[in-house]
UniProtKB/TrEMBL annotation:
It holds the Pfam family Ins134_P3_kin. Keywords: ATP-binding, Kinase, Magnesium, Metal-binding, Nucleotide-binding, Transferase. It catalyses: 1D-myo-inositol 3,4,5,6-tetrakisphosphate + ATP = 1D-myo-inositol 1,3,4,5,6-pentakisphosphate + ADP + H(+). Monomer. Its cofactor is Mg(2+). Residues 145-300 form the Inositol 1,3,4-trisphosphate 5/6-kinase ATP-grasp domain. Belongs to the ITPK1 family. Kinase that can phosphorylate various inositol polyphosphate such as Ins(3,4,5,6)P4 or Ins(1,3,4)P3. Its EC number is 2.7.1.134. This is Inositol-tetrakisphosphate 1-kinase.
Amino acid sequence: MPKVLGWYLNAKTREQKSIKAAIDLLRKDLDVIFIDIFQELPPPNQFDAIFHKPTLEWNSEDSTIQEKAHHFVSFLRDNPSIIQIDPVDSVLMFTNRLCIDEKLSSFSITFNDSDNIWTVQSPCSLHLLGSLEMALADLQEMHPPLPCYVKPSKSCGPRETHQLSICSTLEQLLACLHSHPTQEFLVQECISHLPIVHKAYTVLGECIFSRKAGSVPHPTSDTQYDFDSQKKFSIDGAVEQEESSLNPIPQALFAEIASAISRLTGVQLFGFDVIRKSDDPHRLYVIDINYLPSFSGMDEAPEAIRRNILKRMGIEISS
């Protein structure tokens, strides 16, 4: 009898083309069963592995949806013999920017290719926790990196979780915090960079793919800039030309970054965003990580996800 893979992915994720294709491919190797977390959960001994991403539900403003997500997470935690793709507590880290930032606090890579030495790190950051009064008191003793991104601690869920700001002065930062008195924030250094972000997608052990996308321009004035992190920015032709004149980021370096992130977070199916410093294009910064992203433009993603999951389930892979 074939092994059984249960799966629950939030509605947004399961509608992504690459994910739908991967599920269809897995049906050829496994008995694949959708788990409806809003109904009574099936007996745990029914499953050999569970592929899951309940992150939107975990951060939902609807208490009933949130309760169902918590119940499903407890189900996974209470049944460690079921192979989890990926480990539930590793996946839940991606619901909170502060958790991910803490994991990356000591992240550093030095990479040598034939002609260049590359360095990779995460930007400087501050965590502003608790009440507004506590956050303001913290800022009196700290030296926040300016200009900076101001990001809500929650990284997925309601609309406000992807409403970000760039503040160029301490006064702007204080005003931004005053406008959101009940939230906790990640304050992250805004690195001066060519307005291009290198988006890398990885299925660990199988493949890695990178593409270029437009980035939020570096602030050039003292005006606070508010934006939606899900907005797509275009790449200006002159910027594209400047980027093409630089040494390309080696694919082997993207792979090394992916391996390091996987060791720190415990996940194998993820994406990350990299920028290169304006005055030192061999100095890179990892500015964002996403669990189970769209894999947009990565044609090999469905087959790679299939192979990754089958390997973790100890199944011999057929072509």
